[in-house]
Amino acid sequence: MIEAFTAKWFIFYYLALGSLLLATGAGLLWRPGPLKDYLLEAASTDRYPRGLRRLFSWIFFFTLPGLVFSFIPFSWTELLLSLWSLFIVYIGGVQLLRWPEFRYLLRSRKFRLDRDLRKGGAVMVSAGLVIILLAYFKDARTSIPVTAIRKGSSHAIRLPGYGVTLDGSGAHEGHTFISHAHADHLPRRSGAGRRGRPSWPPRPRRA
Fold first, then answer.
1. Ramachandran angles phi, psi of 165, nearest 5°
2. Torsions phi, psi of 148, nearest 5?
3. CB-side exposure of 171: number of CA atoms within 13 Å?
4. 181 or 10, which is more confident?
5. DSSP 3-state assignment of 161?
6. Are 134 and 77 in contact (CB under 8 A)?
7. CB count, 10 Å around CB of 151?
8. Among 18, 39, 43, 111, which is most exposed with the fewest C-beta within 10 angstroms?
9. Which residues pair with 177 in a beta bridge?
């Protein structure tokens, strides 16, 4: 039960984080000007931008459950991604705490800030695509296919999704598996695939 919940959590986390990185990176590649103006305007004051603090806070609070869930069951992929997210939050938090010094660096690189933001956007797009692929593989690895089971005549069981009939008689598509060799369980259609096992213990042959 808890394993299924953790799998759904990581799929949601992967999709949310990957979509955020992909959208932000694409925006920086297309138009880095708005974020550049925002940073330069914030660099003119001693207060760090509240929007960045709020962003790092949300990533931090969403990463903490993932760090715990990576041990239920233990997975290196989820653990490394959680640690990587916490490292990104740590780097961003340190820059916000050192904002009086960091803002001078922004102002000194304002003519090259467009190029730096585009490079960061390319890295975000690449990371976002990788994380979304992780969500796809996580869903494919943990999803359980739903199989329809139908009751046939007598005590026959049919699995129409797989073309399999267990202990059935009559014409069936696919293969019929017979648990004991009774004539009324054999498929009447001669072209149907049949599988069976001999009775046990074996009957002695007549002389």
1. -125, 135
2. -80, 135
3. 3
4. 10
5. coil
6. yes
7. 9
8. 111
9. 166, 195
